[in-house]
Specification:
The complex is a heterodimer of chains A (119) and B (113).
Chain A: E1 4-7, E2 10-13, E3 18-25, E4 31-37, E5 44-50, E6 53-57, E7 64-70, E8 73-79, E9 87-94, E10 109-110, E11 114-118
Parallel strand pairs in A: 2-11
Antiparallel strand pairs in A: 1-3, 3-8, 4-5, 4-9, 5-6, 7-8, 9-10, 9-11
Chain B: E1 4-6, E2 11-14, E3 19-25, E4 33-38, E5 45-50, E6 54-58, E7 61-66, E8 71-76, E9 85-95, E10 98-103, E11 107-112
Parallel strand pairs in B: 2-11
Antiparallel strand pairs in B: 1-3, 3-8, 4-5, 4-9, 6-7, 7-8, 9-10, 9-11
The chains are: A mainly beta (119), B mainly beta (113).
C-alpha cells in the first residue's frame, strides 16, 4: 500500500461526461503532482502544486482542470475528454518543490493511479 | 538525442546475479537522480535517489552517479524473480526557471530462476 491514495482505481467515461479524480496524502508533503502515463511510455508531468498554489501547468488542455482544496488533497476535474486521453493518471507528492537552478528535487512518491478509459 | 536515455531491454539475468541498469542524461545542470521500479499495470515505486557523485547503497541496491560522464546506474545484487519489472531513471531538468523530472523510457529487467 502506498501513502498516496488515489480514487477511483478505474474509471470509464463517455466524452460528454464530467468526472473527478481524487488524490490524498498524509505525509505532510507540501508539493503535489499530476502525471499522465500511456502504455509502455514514461510518466509525463501535467501539473505541479506547491503550498496549495498551482506552480506549473505543462500546457495541458483545459478539459483537464486541477484543484488543490488543501495541502493533503488534490483533484483533477475532467470534462469533454477525448479517446486519446485514455491513460493511467498518477498523483505524486514530495516534501516540497523549490524552483531554481541550485536546488535538488525532493523524491516524489506516487499513488497507485487511476486507469481512465474514454469511450 | 533524448534527454534521459535507457536501454529498453529486456535485460535478462539469472537469479542471484547482479543486475546492472544504466542511464545517461543530456542536461549538465541536473542535480537530482532517481530510480523507480514499475511492475506491469502498477504505478512507479521509488527505489533510490542520489544527488552527489559516487555510490549510494541501500540494501541490495546501489546507485552510482558520475556527473562528469552524465551517467547514473543502478546495481541490484542477489537478483530475485520479484525484481522483474521496468526500471525508470528520472533526472531533474531546469526549464523556464522551474524544475521538472524527466523520465527515461525504462529498462525491462527479467530475473529467471
Amino acid at each position: 500500500d502506498t501513502e498516496v491514495t488515489q480514487t477511483p482505481k478505474h474509471l470509464v467515461m463517455g466524452m460528454t461526461n464530467k468526472k473527478s479524480l481524487k488524490c490524498e496524502q498524509h505525509m505532510g508533503h507540501r508539493a503535489m503532482y499530476w502525471y499522465k502515463q500511456k502504455a509502455k511510455k514514461p510518466p509525463e508531468l501535467m501539473f505541479v502544486y506547491s503550498y496549495e498554489k498551482l506552480s506549473i501547468n505543462e500546457s495541458v488542455p483545459s478539459r483537464f482542470s486541477p484543484e488543490c482544496p488543501n495541502s493533503s488533497l488534490l483533484n483533477l476535474h475532467l470534462h469533454a475528454l477525448q479517446p486519446e486521453d485514455s491513460a493511467l493518471y498518477l498523483c505524486a507528492s514530495s516534501q516540497d518543490y523549490i524552483q531554481g537552478p541550485t536546488y535538488s528535487n525532493q523524491p516524489q512518491h506516487f499513488g497507485d493511479g487511476t486507469r481512465l478509459s474514454i469511450l | 538525442q533524448k534527454e534521459v536515455e535507457q536501454n529498453s531491454g529486456p535485460l535478462s539475468v539469472p537469479e542471484g546475479a547482479i543486475a546492472s541498469l544504466n542511464c545517461t542524461y543530456s542536461d549538465r545542470g541536473s542535480q537530482s537522480f532517481f530510480w523507480y521500479r514499475q511492475y506491469s499495470g502498477k504505478s512507479p515505486e521509488l527505489i533510490m535517489f542520489i544527488y552527489s557523485n559516487g555510490d549510494k547503497e541501500d540494501g541490495r541496491f546501489t546507485a552510482q552517479l558520475n556527473k562528469a560522464s552524465q551517467y547514473v546506474s543502478l546495481l541490484i545484487r542477489d537478483s530475485q524473480p520479484s525484481d522483474s519489472a521496468t526500471y525508470l531513471c528520472a533526472v531533474n531538468r531546469q526549464s523556464g526557471g522551474y524544475n521538472k523530472l524527466i523520465f527515461g523510457a525504462g529498462t525491462r529487467l527479467a530475473v529467471h530462476p
